[in-house]
């Protein structure tokens, strides 16, 4: 995924960034949309939540969703921990950040395509007359834009000597 060579010491580290970004994206979605805004539950399009028993089922499904994302996060953290010395490789921070952003954006693209459009288990706003509008309003900034930013970080050259931090400090002074 990150590099073609199995001998690359950063390969597993970059996979760790991807899985951590993927997990954080699921947490972001689940906490904000399921719990805070309460716009939908994981299975809102499949099962009603009219009675307390129905709502308990929805909350259980949301909880299992979060458990799966804890497992993705643990996988990512384990890969990062076991390859933490690879952070010494010049330029790896930028690639790591790029792969973490690709993981974050990938979750939202996967969720939109599978959950919203193919399986139809939920939409971003279940109560909307225009669900596609809300799906796209969520997918574009949190899926496609973040994915594009991650790809941009991987393809663009790193900043020159001194980095952007030094230029910012000089500008502020």
From TrEMBL:
InterPro entries in the record: DUF2243_membrane
Transmembrane intervals: 12-37, 57-79, 131-154
Domain of life: Bacteria
Keyword terms of this UniProt record: Membrane, Transmembrane, Transmembrane helix
Name the record gives this protein: DUF2243 domain-containing protein
Organism: Cereibacter changlensis
Lineage: Bacteria, Pseudomonadati, Pseudomonadota, Alphaproteobacteria, Rhodobacterales
